[in-house]
Amino acid sequence: MSDDATLPELVRAWTSGWAVSRGAADPAPEPWGWSIDVGQQRHVWRHVLPEPAEAEVRKLTEGTTVPWTWLKLFAEEERVLPWIGPGWHQDGPGYLMTLPLRPGPGRPAAPAGYRITTWSRGGTVRVLVRTTGGEFAARGQVGLAPATPLGGRTDAPLLAVADQIETAPEHRRRGLGSAVMRTLQHEAHEAGARTALLVGTTEGRALYTGLGWTLRSPMASFWYDPSTPTGRPHGGS
């Protein structure tokens, strides 16, 4: 994927790799973007709009009746928030970021006192960090998809979508997040991917920027359930 890729192209790529990572259904094209059947109790399906317009967002939010429908709008929260109908809740902001993948000197070493395990299944590469005693410390994964997904060429180069990056609270500030990301980047390049994408949280944005990732767009996130009090359920990107 070229550096001058448009935002809709980047969001399309992220959407495709995210669906692989989560084991979700193939994204279904819509006039405004894509819908994905996710199939989880608190994430039934999601709508992804790379260039949200007020009329489209109002129609979607006012017409939604299924609880735990998610809405991902690639725009500043302040711009789209007035368009959101009743029954919707605002999740934390996200940031679409990209990174060109290049060959490195080898698989990154685990920090002292930890060990790293990697495996791949169904187009998803997973990284697990545990203490030398076996306790969980950190994890992450990437979904691999063609660089021209959703009906494009099947022989296109792969891209990698980093997802579900997590460090246990008691193991933070020990370089484990960086170790997970560098390992994922290495494994994705070894698998044939040449571009990586992710949507990070506000906290993760600083980590990814320090690792060379480039911010491409903010993302506003909302979920629907009229019976739930206002609050953030931490549903993930």
UniProtKB/TrEMBL annotation:
Transmembrane segments: none annotated. InterPro entries: Acyl_CoA_acyltransferase (IPR016181), GCN5-like_dom (IPR013653), GNAT_dom (IPR000182). It comes from the Bacteria. Gene3D superfamilies: 3.40.630.30. GO terms for molecular function: acyltransferase activity, transferring groups other than amino-acyl groups. Residues 55-235 form the N-acetyltransferase domain. CDD domains: NAT_SF. This is N-acetyltransferase domain-containing protein.
